[in-house]
Design goal:
Elements: H1 2-26, E1 45-49, H2 52-62, H3 64-71, H4 76-91, H5 93-98, E2 104-112, E3 115-123, H6 130-144, E4 145-152, E5 155-162, E6 168-174, E7 177-181, H7 184-196, H8 204-210, E8 219-224, H9 225-233, H10 238-241, E9 253-261, E10 264-272, H11 293-297
Antiparallel strand pairs: 1-2, 1-8, 2-3, 3-7, 4-5, 5-6, 6-7, 8-9, 9-10
Amino acid sequence: MVRKIVFGVLLAAFAGLLVFAWFKLTQTKKINYEYYEAIPYSSAVVVEFRDPAELFSRVQNTNLIYDELRTAGLVGPLDQTLEQLDTLLSSEPWFKQNLSQVPVLMAWIPGGAQKFSFLLSIRVPSTVDEDDFKEQISRQFETYFSGTDKAYDSGTITLLKRKGSDETYAMSFHKGYFLFSPMSIVIEESIRQINSGVSLKSKPNFLQAYQTAGTSKSINVYINHQVWSQYISSLMDPSFSNRLASLQSWASWTELDGIVKPNGLLFNGYSFAADSVQNFLSLFEGRRHGLSISLVCCPPIRRFFTTMD
């Protein structure tokens, strides 16, 4: 009798544990729309920097891969932007106090004529007065740039020209966001996205990827496969870019958690397919059977065997 009671208690505890685990695993994470309203749907890559001040300093000063890219001239305006952000967030008292821990979003967006440009997006923290934020940012830019304003879709875009150089940029303060890019057309698209009142997180395919992001990692990278292959192709030789076309159908979105090491960048994450048949399974379309070297090594007596070459 005692054994039956103990067995019943253990069985009930096990059933309760299963129910708890099921609710825990299927629980929907609380969604924070605060930082993503300015990111256009057409973004090829979206990168979230969770601790920008510490990360920018580490990437620029200790990472050998980034140093090689900088030496080869492959980071260009992005490197100058990161350097100025690093200086602001680590040296200027006001920025260090109010923005050093505020996440920064950076997206690579089509800018027309097969060109892509980055968009820097920062949401004004609720603890900071928006007018004060605008004044502090504008004061810093006046040191390096001269600018003229133009109206666009209920907002204002400032066209910037670096002093002593032909480099041009654009920035805008719009509905609580600070936006910066080398191309004004990218700022315009971001303003239209904000005015729509709909966040990128409202897209189910992106939301799946977003909910897997590691909140303790330095970087979270989101890749939009429908646009990403076009972005990569724009950086490579035309003879090789055609081979990247198949990556467009690999998945819908991919999320990667990034860790910066002195001699490397480590990434791991998940890919999500909106339609498995039309996405990653389509990569096997048109393949023809051939003799696999695995068959030569496989013992003749076997229960089950599968191979992928």
